[in-house]
Give the backbone structure.
Amino acid sequence: MTPQLRRRFASVALILGFFLAWELLCLAFGVKDIILPRPSQIVLTLGQRMPAIWPHALQTLYTTLVGFALGIVAGVLLGAFVGSSKLAYDVAYPLLVGFSSIPKVAVVPIFVLWFGAGTIPAVLTAMILCVFPIVVNVATGLATTEPELEDVMKALKASKLDILTNVGLPRTMPYFFASLKVAVTQAFVGTVIAETVASNRGIGNLMMIASSSFDVPLVFAGLLILAVLGVALYVIFSLIEGRVTGWAHRKDEFAMG
Amino acid sequence: MMHAPTPEPPTRPDAFVELHQVTHAYGRGDKQVKALDATDLRIEQGDFIALVGPSGCGKSTILKLVTGLISASSGGVLVAGREVGAEPVRVGMAFQNPTLLPWLTLRDNVMLPLKIVAPFRQEYRAKRKGEFRDRIDALLARVGLAGFAEKYPWQLSGGMMQRASLCRALVHEPQLLMLDEPFGALDQFTREELWGIMQDLWMTLRPTVLLVTHDLKEAAYLANRICVMQARPGRIIEESVVTFPRPRTISISYEPAFVALTQRLRELIVSARPAKETVQ
């Protein structure tokens, strides 16, 4: 067994062990399912209520992905602008930090005020939550491009666009993809927050309603769905990252392949 | 030094590269440092010039001025009779560091100039998988990198990267080749081998070469003319014509005339040091 396989095996065992311990502790102390349902009950609820849950899950996924896509577009454009020159970077950075340190939950009521309750505030919340990591990473990637690499291009009399597409952007890809992993999880958080506050659809809303009627297993079922979706999106973007920016990691496996 | 003349003495009377009373200062105000002071330099087409001197003497500044990476504080830099930047001259440049793009294979790294520079740029899409590819593989083979075209830079040693970097500087058949201490970071054997390759490439392609180096032996081995520079303020204090017949070999570097030349250059550079430094 290779060390890598052993690590993977151990982390799967840890996850299973966590749920097993949860199950056993609940049984041992006779915890009521209105306080903390056992994993088996959660899975059971999930199975039984699937027809009711899954439109909500799709809604949440849809909202997240739309917000995420908008966030990527806005983030890359803004990041490219901020990272394009030292001046723009220095001037814009304080404002960016200011914006990104506002707790995003606080802006949901504003979006509701502007657009009414529903999908739009959720999409926008997802977008603003995921846009900052992308902006900061793209800007940093561009701003830290080695001047020597640009000199190579300038000596060839390359245009600014040539330099951007041949050096700036490829150089920034590892930063960009690293930010996507964070951003997609953030977008997810944004969606669920907005759904909880002001929506009649989505997993956030489902959990809100379930908790107000003390349907605790359903609340946890919603949580499980969120976890699975979140992990799935993270994994997808990690895989894309690995394929596109393998050069930046310089692992032996990559060297051999 | 009075050896047989070089095989093809430069015939064109007009200078291909001309620096006229060029001054360059870095920084501004009180912190201004004069890197280059009223320097004149003429290089004929197809010539091979080496710039030698202590650190901070403005060798690299001259290179950057001629390439257009920086612009002169005063004076004129002309390439092919026109203000630098406006001239339709293909320039190749190799730096002290290989500066290969880590996300590209060696072949794609060497391909870069063909993607950017006219007239190759126009044919890039059609030829990158055929003619250009073969040409690059041939060039890589010539510097001892056959079979490494698919490798990424970080899979190679420093010497191999530097070889690839030379290929990148030469692939678009530049009329003007700028070498900024490209052999400086290499071990002696690799360095000497690359001198041979460089001379070979120069003799076949005949670009106009400007080589910046610390290594006097390197300058004497490769160049037709050596410009000795002095630091603070940087300027050219002497030019020596090197007349050893080509192709030169490493064994020439043990001949008395060669040793005498490098020794004389060394003494020039040492004696030209600013007074405060000799005291230290």
Notes: Chain A has one domain: 56-248.
